[in-house]
Design goal:
The structure is a homodimer. Chain A is an alpha+beta fold. The first copy, chain A, has one domain: Aminohydrolase, N-terminal nucleophile (Ntn) domain (Glutamine Phosphoribosylpyrophosphate, subunit 1, domain 1, 4-Layer Sandwich), CATH 3.60.20.10. Helix content of chain A is 35%, strand content 28%. Chain A contains 5 helices and 12 strands. The first copy, chain A, has a 5-stranded antiparallel sheet, covered by helices on one side. Chain A has a 5-stranded antiparallel sheet with strand order 5-6-7-8-9. Chain A has a two-stranded antiparallel ribbon with strand order 3-4. The N and C termini of chain A lie far apart (43 Å). The relative contact order of chain A is 0.20. Chains A and B meet through helix 3, helix 4 and helix 5 of A and helix 3, helix 4 and helix 5 of B.
Chain lengths: 240, 240
């Protein structure tokens, strides 16, 4: 499995992804699922990958190769909508190439992405692109998008991720959401890659990896547990 | 779907179940999923049902009819282990009767239960009985058992439900776990039936139903959201 989250706040965007890939519990590995396309001062695009690793790596390779060639590509398009369509085009190209062979082995093409960022002249935007290449965009009613093992971590995001939340508070919330997910699903694992993007900066200035045993992450986790136990204790008692 | 939780604390047991049944989103209804077998001063047994309503109702009818006849039955057995076996026997009897007809319609027998309680002379015990009639028992490492839509509500139970938690605090936690689940899965719905059993009392003294708009439930929910947002805000900020 995988767990990826993209958040769109008034203040900026948050992206986070785990790094575990596996083919059964007896075969797991670490791969980074976050890819950044940056042209500082002009655009920042972040892609979070879920699904089969061969498929997502192939899509990213195609996007990178195209970005070095003739426009249109992720470095040239004028809108995030066009960028999402380019990701979909790359996914469909890989599916056309590999799909029939996967079917021969009883498998199917399986890749999906969260794409977010900002291009100069446009507002920040955040999309979830499905395996078929169609996509949805986050809005103020639903300011976060998840892929992979989304259920364990969702209630915690629901608590504190609103468009007006600060980048700082929502980031803590996203990290706690990862901790909750990893506690219940072994197929989601550290390290966690985190990127926070402050609106209109058009540059990556806050990017960080959390490995197992990270002092900040562990402290956050313990203080969250202690804090919420205190909240439960202080909630009004039920009268029978 | 359904959401049921059974908790075993040092102080007592907690049982909670939602009341929504459905066959597609265009066909849903309310049915109580909590059944109590009580002989005050001698035994309290609580059964929470998940699965097909025809199956779970049939099992409960069989158990009730048998309890009015010759032992062994739920009112006579000397241990919770024997009680769990009786539930399994009733499930298997219904499956033998209905299973082949369900298969004819492309369906399968689908019923599972959480069973907990205390019989005089024995400690409190809590079981989860699978559709096949085999079962597991909660212990100090895993003091709660869930059925149905378990993922959304689990991280919140993980936060505060430990064997040494008070019945009062763990009850608030269970209710918040239901709220989180209902927020994300429409097939889990109010009213919520709640029963708290205080160790060695051998009687039901705390049983309560929460309907939509319940003042205590709503207040708990709002104070929980406010409390956790404060916790997020007070957690140490990430330094980049």
């Amino acid at each position: 499995m995988t767990y990826c989250v993209g958040v769109k706040l008034d203040e900026g965007l948050i992206f986070a992804s785990d790094s575990r890939t596996h083919a059964g519990v007896d075969n797991y590995a670490k791969f980074c699922k976050m890819t950044v396309f940056e042209n500082a001062g002009e655009r920042v695009l972040v892609l979070l990958s879920s699904g089969g690793l061969a498929a997502t790596q192939a899509v990213i390779n195609v996007l990178r190769q195209r970005a070095a060639g003739e426009p249109p590509h992720l470095g040239s398009v004028a809108s995030m909508f066009d960028a999402a369509n380019l990701v979909a085009d790359a996914m469909r190209a890989i599916e056309r190439r590999d799909g029939p062979y996967l079917e021969g082995g009883g498998l199917e093409f399986n890749a999906s992405f969260i794409l977010g960022g900002q291009i100069a002249g446009e507002e920040m935007r955040l999309f979830r692109i499905y395996a078929e290449g169609n996509f949805i965009e986050a809005g103020s009613d639903t300011p976060f998008l998840q892929t992979g093992e989304a259920k364990y971590g969702k209630p915690i995001l629901d608590l504190a991720v609103t468009p007006s939340a600060t980048l700082e508070d929502a980031t803590k919330c996203v990290l706690v959401s990862f901790d909750s997910t990893m506690l219940s699903n072994l197929s989601v694992g550290m390290p966690i890659d985190l990127l926070c993007y402050a609106r209109d900066t058009l540059a990556v200035t806050m990017k960080r990896r959390f490995d197992a045993g990270d002092a900040y992450f562990d402290s956050l986790k313990h203080q969250w547990i202690a804090g919420t136990r205190k909240v439960f204790h202080e909630l009004p008692a039920l009268e029978w």
